[in-house]
Write a structure and sequence with these properties.
three-stranded antiparallel β-sheet; five-stranded mixed β-sheet; 17 strands; single chain
Length: 430
């Protein structure tokens, strides 16, 4: 089980995920800066996150700075590691494939009247604003892992269930922390959601973290067993090991291969995967049925994206996946990019010569696409083809996975090309 990380390069993770990536990138730059630079210095500048670019607004910068200030406050007198790659390799039951990148790790060795022993901090930035995430929740009777903790100003300990993702990061960070400080007594796990004003933390003693390591290793072993059972058996044999759902499956890299997820999708769509190509799921028609079906849409959509990504990876690696046309899927060139002027100055001069003032939108030259709407017509088609078409450049279409019987020629990637579209054309060519 690998940690949730950014989506693989070339895959569109969505605007919100890309925005979070941009926020993490800016936060890391500020935390690593030796010049005293702040997020305010970046207002108006552009930073890339995933497949998108974002202009740093005052609001964006303010929220990133809130996180940066909190990390710097906690790191006073200690050692700070930013965007540190950590791994569970060395923890019994795990190996080097169980890794991730921790936003901020802090080792504090200085003793004070408040802290008698060295300790560590693992802080995670959550830049989304859809739902609050907590470092802990009150334990339920069916909580699989429970620990006792002093929460806020409570006078007695209470039973809580820690955030499993942060516990894994803390466990993986322990080896690095022990290189920075001698014998840490606990690790403080922190969730920082500046856009929601949410700061949640939990002090986890090292003994509890070591007990969690045994729990996590056992859970991983059972999950791997359940993954091997297949769609038919998983419902009967391993329902207690795998519990698919929108929240818990959102960032899982094994979603496309998970039999429990496949079984849930079959149930939600009332479809048998063996015949779904010829007998697609029946779409509800009345409002109550649609309302119920809509609850499954996010999870089904995530699963479909995961299947598409896995199919792209396998076909890209040379594995044959046979489609309903009894031919292996292949890559073809997809939709071309938007038309853009290869030489804006030459295009401007030509447009002004032909259109005069109409060559301009307010304060800017017409785009290649906009000019085509004006000039690519019967009366001016020759002018358009002779003068303007040579001035246009267009990005080649990204490879798109289609059935082997598709009449388009197979895509031959340029040297070093590795981006694939998640979207695909599944229609059977006539």
């Amino acid at each position: 089980m690998a940690y949730p990380e950014n989506t693989a390069e070339g895959v569109d993770a969505g605007e919100y995920a890309d925005e979070g990536t941009a926020a993490h990138k800016l936060a890391a730059l500020l935390l690593k800066s030796k010049s005293g630079m702040t997020a305010e210095d970046w207002i108006g500048k552009v930073i890339r996150g995933g497949t998108r670019e974002f202009e740093i607004t005052e609001e964006f910068a303010g929220h990133v700075q809130t996180y940066v200030d909190d990390v710097q406050r906690r790191a006073i007198g200690g050692y700070l590691m930013v965007e540190q790659r950590v791994t569970l390799d060395g923890v019994e039951g795990f190996d080097e494939s169980n890794y991730g990148t921790s936003d901020a790790i802090i080792g504090v060795a200085t003793k004070s009247k408040y802290e008698r022993y060295p300790y560590g901090v693992v802080e995670d930035l959550k830049f989304g604003q859809g739902e609050k995430v907590y470092a802990w929740t009150h334990a339920r009777p069916d909580s699989p892992f429970v620990m006792d903790a002093w929460i806020e100003d409570s006078e007695v300990q209470v039973s809580v269930e820690p955030n499993y993702q942060l516990m894994l990061y803390a466990l993986a960070s322990l080896a690095d922390l022990r290189l920075l400080i001698e014998d840490p007594s606990y690790i403080l796990i922190v969730i920082n959601q500046p856009r929601l004003g949410n700061l949640s933390e939990l002090r986890v003693p090292i003994a509890v973290l070591e007990r969690f390591a045994l729990f996590a290793a056992d859970a991983l072993k059972k999950a791997e067993l359940a993954m091997s059972l297949g769609v038919v058996n998983v419902e009967f044999e391993s329902a207690r090991f795998l519990n698919p759902g929108e929240k818990q499956c959102r960032w899982c890299r094994a979603l496309a291969r998970c039999p429990a997820a496949a079984a849930k999708i079959q149930k939600e769509t009332a479809a048998d995967f063996e015949v779904i190509g010829s007998e697609p799921p029946v779409v509800p028609v009345n409002a109550p049925q649609i309302a119920k079906a809509m609850l499954a849409v996010p999870f089904v959509s995530d699963w479909c994206r995961a299947v598409m990504q896995r199919a792209n990876e396998l076909v890209g690696a040379g594995t044959d996946i046979i489609g309903p046309d009894n031919k292996p899927y292949k890559f073809v060139e997809g939709k071309q990019g938007d038309r853009k002027w290869a030489d804006p100055k030459a295009a401007e001069a030509a447009l002004v010569g032909v259109l005069g003032p109409k060559a301009y939108k307010p304060q800017e030259i017409l785009t290649a696409g906009g000019a085509s709407k004006v000039l690519d017509k019967a009366k001016t088609k020759a002018t358009w083809n002779d003068i303007f078409v040579p001035l246009i450049k267009r990005a080649p279409g990204k490879p798109m996975l289609v059935m082997g019987s598709d009449p388009r020629p197979a895509y031959i990637p340029a040297s070093g090309a590795d981006e694939f579209e998640i979207e695909a054309d599944w229609s059977i060519p006539e």
